Amino acid sequence: MSKQFAPAQLAPAQLGPDYVRAIAPYQAGKPIAEVAREFGLDEAAIVKLASNENPLGMPESAKLAMQQAVAELGRYPDANGFELKAAISAKYDVPQSWITLGNGSNDILEIAAHAFVQPGQSVVYAQYGFLVYALATQAVGARAIEVPAKDFGHDLPAMAKAIAADTRLVYLANPNNPTGTFVPAAELETFLKSVPPEAVVVLDEAYNEYLAAEHQYESTAWVRQFPNLVVSRTMSKAYGLAGLRVGFAIAQPEVTDLMNRIRQPFNVNSLAQAAAVAALNDKAFLQKSAEINSAGYRQLTAAFDELGLRYVPSYGNFVLVKVGEDDGAGARVNLALLKKGIIVRPVGNYGLPQWLRISIGLPQENAAFIAALKTVLA
C-alpha cells in the first residue's frame, strides 16, 4: 500500500532558511569568452583586467609538475595534502598540524564561518571588505556587524569597539580588496591584542606577496602568540594558480582541528596540489610577478594623474579609481570599456558606484586599457 502525502504548502525553494534565500550570489568578473560573444569581439583582442589574476599566468614549474601528476588522475587526491602541507610548513616554519588546505582562500573564509559561528551570533568586518565576508556570514545565519571604513580601509579601533559579547569571528583583509588599503604591522598587532579570546580573527592575506619589502611582516609569528588567529593565504594571485583553486590557513592546532572537521574531503585536487608545491618553491617567478606589478601600478597611476582621476593608493595588484561623479558613472564607463574589449570590475555592489577596480596587467594590456579609458572619458 503506497503512502499518502498531504499536498505541499510551500515550494521547495521556500523551505530554505530565510537567511540563505536572502543571499545575493557572488558575481565574478566577466570571462573573456562571454564578452566576445556578447559584443561580437575577437577573443584574442580582449584585455581582462577584472579579477586580480597574475598577468604572467601560471609558472612553468607548476605546468611541469601538473604534467607529471596526470598519470595518477585515476586515483583520488591525497586528502591530507601531505606534500603541499610539507611545502607550506617549510616556507612558513610552522608544523603541518597548523595547516588547513582550501579550494582557494574563499573556501577557508567559509570554513571558518561554519566552524566557529552559530546562527544568531555576530561577525565583524569592515565596510568595503571582501564581499565573501558578508556572504559567509549570511550562509550561517549570523548577524553582520559592518564597521564604517576609514579612508576606504579598516578602522581598527572602531572594529575593536564593535566586537560584541556574541561575536565569534572577525574578518580582516590586509591588503584589502577591493580598495587596496594596507594596515601596518604595529597597528595590526595592537588590534589583535584587543580582541577577546572567544572571537576568532581571520587575517586574509590574499595579496601579501605584492607588498614592498618595507611593508612586509611575518604574521605566522602572531599565530604562535594568539590562539584565536587564523592567517589565510591564496595561490590564486601572485603565484598564478587562479584556475586551480588553492588556498590555505595557518592557525594553532586546536583551531586547525576544528576547521578540518568542516573541510570537505579532497577539496584540493591532485593537479592543484602538485602545481602549488612547485609554485611555492619558484622564487624567481614570484619576484618577477612583484616587479611586473610594481611597474604596472606606476603605469596606471601616472595615467590617472594625467587624467585628473582620483584613485586609492593600492598595496595589491589592482587600483580602485573614480571615473565620474554620478552614481551611474561606474556602470556607464564599464559598459563603454566592454564594447572596446576591455574587461574591468565595477564595484557598485560594494557601495562604490562611481568607481572601477582595475587589475594590473602586462605593460601592453595596461596601455590598451588607458587608451580605451581616455577615449571613453573624452
Notes on the structure:
With 378 residues, the protein is an alpha/beta fold. It is 40% helix and 14% strand. It is built from 14 helices and 13 strands. The protein has a seven-stranded mixed β-sheet with strand order 2-8-7-6-5-3-4, with helices on both faces. It has a four-stranded antiparallel β-sheet with strand order 9-10-13-12. A two-stranded parallel ribbon has the order 1-11. The longest helix has 25 residues, at 283-307. The protein is globular and about 55 Å long.
Query: Main beta sheet: strand number and arrangement?
Result: 7 strands, mixed
Q: Percent of residues in helical segments?
A: 25-40%
Oligomer: single chain
Rg, Å, rounded: 22 Å
Give the percentage of residues in beta strands.
Answer: 5-15%
Compact overview of the structure:
With 378 residues, this protein is an alpha/beta fold. Helix content is 40%, strand content 14%. It contains 14 helices and 13 strands.
In terms of topology, how is this protein built?
Blueprint: H1 18-21, H2 32-39, E1 47-48, H3 60-69, H4 82-92, E2 99-102, H5 105-116, E3 122-126, H6 131-139, E4 143-147, H7 156-162, E5 167-173, H8 185-194, E6 200-204, H9 219-225, E7 229-234, E8 247-250, H10 253-262, H11 270-280, H12 283-307, E9 311-312, E10 318-322, H13 329-339, E11 342-343, E12 345-346, E13 355-359, H14 363-377
Helix pairs in contact: 3-11, 4-11, 5-6, 5-10, 12-14
What key attributes describe this structure?
378 residues, 14 helices, 14% strand, 13 strands, alpha/beta, 40% helix, 7-stranded mixed sheet
